[in-house]
Amino acid sequence: MSLVLGVDAGATKTFALVADKDGHILGFGQGGSGNHQVAGLEPALAVIRRSSEDALAQAGASPPVDFGFFGLAGADLPVDFALLTPAVEGMGIARRVCIKNDTMVALRAGLKRSWGVAVISGAGFNAGGIGPDGREIQLPGLGVLSGDWGGGGDIAQGVIRLICRAWDGRGQPTVLTEMVLTALGLPSVEELIAQLYQSQFDYYPGQFDQRRLLALVPLVFEAACGGDQVAQDLVVRV
Amino acid sequence: MSLVLGVDAGATKTFALVADKDGHILGFGQGGSGNHQVAGLEPALAVIRRSSEDALAQAGASPPVDFGFFGLAGADLPVDFALLTPAVEGMGIARRVCIKNDTMVALRAGLKRSWGVAVISGAGFNAGGIGPDGREIQLPGLGVLSGDWGGGGDIAQGVIRLICRAWDGRGQPTVLTEMVLTALGLPSVEELIAQLYQSQFDYYPGQFDQRRLLALVPLVFEAACGGDQVAQDLVVRV
């Protein structure tokens, strides 16, 4: 039976599906971050491989499938494709491999026609589009570096900044202060600042896993819906 | 002869002065970054030590002096003082050591009275103040983390962001594009983005020393004075 594999690898989670040529789903696999910028190269590749193999196993098939499409967050610049293409091909999971940025997965999943624009606001932010003539365009998608602001990581950083400025008097008071300290189990803004700060330098004990900050993002929407002006301003900026 | 040593250690440069108790300058020493956040702990300490020793040598004196005042950029949080105080005391350069954030150097250097506010916009940004009652206040001074925007590093990052957005069509065209590419000796915005990006990851060749970006800051003021709207908006934000 002729099979195709589709992988959507993001900064937070990776999904893999195996289908037959008529589009019937036969197997599903999942894993954590498949973004080499976020997870590191080898861990990201391991997640992509394991998710794919799980999907194939559930489909009762063995690698390689005929065709594998990999929509990879972090596949932004030519150097990324030069790195990722041989690595994914070398897994031996698919005879033919096509790698695109994960914006293209969102675009094709959300449209019946073949052209349009997709905006991703996940842990990171990115956007891309395909024209009616097939031409593709892609933002650099490199965060602050390329002016691409708007993912959960940026929002979380915004929350910390706003809490700090409420604390030192330069910003407006916000319910986010109490919500964030409770969520993180920390006693004070001073302690939050200290732990975030220390985790950036190897000569301080690194008590804080910065990935915990992503869990703060829903609190921003909760506070905004509750009428907090500081949270509303941040949401409006997104 | 009873001597005092004063050190002003910033992210870019470190100055050390030796004076007698009447304030006559007897020796001067200088070095590069004395900020442990920027240069790393050991390199920063080595700069502070060498600058101090050079100033003492020029004064024809040997360590230790009676009193040493160290105004250190990067001395922001209690953990910093806990780290830096024994390290500086351990150098044996001064019998008594006082360490403060470098904002306090600027404040005392710029005022005849003993109280006021100092704002530093160097490679980084920071501010602090002393009240008439002697109470001191200090911003966290941790950049984006604590909402302290405005130093040369932030301006340089702003320039890159604005050039990227002018390039991909989301921002206004700006003369900064050509000025920055010429200054960095790069052929295109694509190449600039690629090199900045690659230098962030250890699995790509790191061709770009991010410190080169600081040299872009004067170009922003040059472009703003020449009438460039994009540059003017960035300067106004500072």
Describe this structure in words.
Two copies of one chain form a homodimer. In chain A, helix 5 (152-168) packs antiparallel against helix 9 and helix 8 packs across helix 9 (229-237). The first copy, chain A, has a five-stranded mixed sheet with strand order 3-2-1-4-5. The model of chain A has no long low-confidence stretch (mean pLDDT 93). The radius of gyration of chain A is 21 Å and the shape is elongated. Chain A is α/β, with parallel strands linked by helices and 238 residues long. Chain A contains nine helices and eight strands. Chain A folds into two domains: 3-110, Nucleotidyltransferase, domain 5; 152-237, 2-Layer Sandwich (Nucleotidyltransferase, domain 5), CATH 3.30.420.40. The interface between A and B is medium-sized, with 32 and 32 residues.
Q: Could you tell me the radius of gyration of chain A in angstroms?
A: 21 Å
Question: Helices and strands of chain A, in N-to-C order?
Answer: EEEHHEHEHEEEHHHHH
Low-confidence stretches of chain A: none
Strand runs of chain A, count: 8
Quaternary state reads homodimer
Beta-strand residue percentage of chain A: 15-25%
Largest sheet of chain A: 5 strands, mixed
Under CATH at level 1, the class of the largest domain in chain A stands as Alpha Beta
Strand order of the largest sheet of chain A: 3-2-1-4-5
State the helical fraction of chain A. 40-55%
Specify the overall morphology of chain A. elongated
Helical element count of chain A? 9
Rounded average pLDDT of chain A? 93
Distance between the termini of chain A: 46 Å
Structural class of chain A: alpha/beta
CATH architecture of the largest domain in chain A: 2-Layer Sandwich
The tally of structural domains of chain A comes to 2
The CATH superfamily title of the largest domain in chain A = ATPase, nucleotide binding domain
The pair of chains with the biggest contact is:
A-B, 32 and 32 residues
